[in-house]
Amino acid sequence: MATVSESPLLTPLEGPPVRVLNASGPARAVLVCEHASRFIPATLRGLGLDAAAAQSHAAWDIGAMELAVELMGALDAPLVAARVSRLVYDCNRPPEAPDSIPAKSEVYDIPGNTGLSTAERDARGHEIYAPFRATLAGALDARPDASLLITVHSFTPVYNGRRRDVELGILHDADDRAARHLLRALGDSGLRTALNEPYSAADGVTHTLRAHAIGRGLANVMIEVRNDLLDTPAGVNRIAGLLTPALARVIAEMDPESAPDTNERATP
Amino acid sequence: MATVSESPLLTPLEGPPVRVLNASGPARAVLVCEHASRFIPATLRGLGLDAAAAQSHAAWDIGAMELAVELMGALDAPLVAARVSRLVYDCNRPPEAPDSIPAKSEVYDIPGNTGLSTAERDARGHEIYAPFRATLAGALDARPDASLLITVHSFTPVYNGRRRDVELGILHDADDRAARHLLRALGDSGLRTALNEPYSAADGVTHTLRAHAIGRGLANVMIEVRNDLLDTPAGVNRIAGLLTPALARVIAEMDPESAPDTNERATP
């Protein structure tokens, strides 16, 4: 039985830190959106942020949840989505990473994350990251037929004053099978697409892939869309329309028989 | 077989006019969001709207889809959501209603809806409303155990210059069972809640309830939230947090045995 805390970060009215949507969707894939929301629980008093910071890409991946919901509907796949800002806890980082609870993000200082005690950091991990991790693991356990884990992200067009030209980044960790398939499947999409841009596993951004897919031998890919392409419904629909058939091909190509000998799922 | 049009309103990249999300969600309810999106297909050249009108409540129910997705997740119920602006075709209106394709909405003229030919109006109905209607009917046919149809809407705080004080409107058509149960269940929510405000069935806004629930004897309710309560994730979470347990109670109360003798589902 879970310990009942006297001061939980999230009140019952605010709901859980993570949800599985469309859990019974039949597609052989699981979608993940770690940075879906800019929600900051009232107990954290907005982390001391001004309105600009609280609405910026530092707080969430702008447009990523709309895109993820579109992909969920178009592919009919389950979607595991965090419901709390990554500034509270970044569910794509392990607790030992300093930027799991960043005191600074790009140009923004995060006053509510400065000088936290170990107990305060542990509480964030316990109340946000632990349920996220358990929920995603449970969603994958429930779908042993899944052939692909897809994480859905967006990035800011200008970072630290520098313009980013890439429109769609396809990132991988140690297993690059799905990323390379997806890059090929998107060959004539008209999007400026690149492997491991605007950042890569070396920047510590593939934690979810590593923690939930690599160990299972499950093919996996991280999708990064420049967020100015997601700032209207027309933009979201276009990107979803380009990604959907490409992802459907990768899901089909990544069936267990095509996995390498080290695939733990094929040799339980 | 469907006739293939040479100039469909929606291109394949833009996707279908309606989707069922979480179709296998086990809750005994079906959620509907007719005004979920402000998306205008590229073929319609923005209907000649300026940016303010295209983003305004005239084009969609601001915050309604976010709330509907929250309720979908919290209740684990299917959600039927339109993907096209109500200014293209208002899926909560029958084709014979003049405001199914409005030439004016509150203070906004809609140039692209002025002087349409019968063929142009028919094309909107054929490509948007007909699939919406068929998809919702199919979702209900697939869930004969459902005890409640819930439509999720939002309204603007100021309409034609007049301030609206109500925060949550609960609307019904001929069958008021679920609306009255929900009003009771929300008794101590702290929201200014009223039956049939800020408008009612007499204003022609209960078409979905009438077309899809009344004839089936299925209990039904239309929820209208003032959209300034849905303009932040905290606001959406609060309203979803208040509605979820109340709706769960109504779903339980509206089981077929409690239906009146005229319930067609109880006497097939």
Key descriptive features of the protein:
homodimer, 268 residues, alpha/beta, Aminopeptidase, seven-stranded mixed β-sheet, 6 helices, globular, disordered C terminus, hydrolase activity (chains A, B), N-FG_amidohydro (chains A, B)
Describe how the helices and strands are arranged.
The structure is a homodimer of 268-residue chains.
Chain A: E1 18-21, E2 29-33, H1 51-55, H2 64-75, E3 79-82, E4 104-105, E5 108-109, H3 118-141, E6 148-155, E7 158-159, E8 162-163, E9 168-171, H4 177-185, E10 193-195, H5 207-214, E11 220-226, H6 233-253
Parallel strand pairs in A: 2-3, 2-6, 6-11, 9-10
Antiparallel strand pairs in A: 1-3, 4-5, 7-8, 9-11
Helix pairs in contact in A: 2-6, 4-6
Strand content of chain A: 15-25%
What strand line-up does the widest sheet of chain A have? Answer: 1-3-2-6-11-9-10
**Largest interface in this structure:** A-B, 30 and 30 residues
- The CATH architecture of chain A comes to 3-Layer(aba) Sandwich
CATH H-tier superfamily of chain A: Zn-dependent exopeptidases
Assembly classification: homodimer
- Flag low-confidence runs of chain A: 1-5, 259-268
* Structure annotation, total helices of chain A: 6
Average pLDDT, all residues of chain A: 93
Q: Globular, elongated, flat, extended or rod-shaped: what is the shape of chain A?
A: globular
What is the β-strand count of chain A? 11
The level of helicity of chain A is: 25-40%
CATH class of chain A: Alpha Beta
Structural class of chain A: alpha/beta
Cα separation of the termini of chain A: 30 Å
What is the H/E order of chain A? EEHHEEEHEEEEHEHEH
| Biggest β-sheet strands, sense, barrel of chain A | 7 strands, mixed
Q: Can you tell me the number of structural domains of chain A?
A: 1
Which fold does the CATH topology of chain A refer to? Aminopeptidase
Give the radius of gyration of chain A: 18 Å
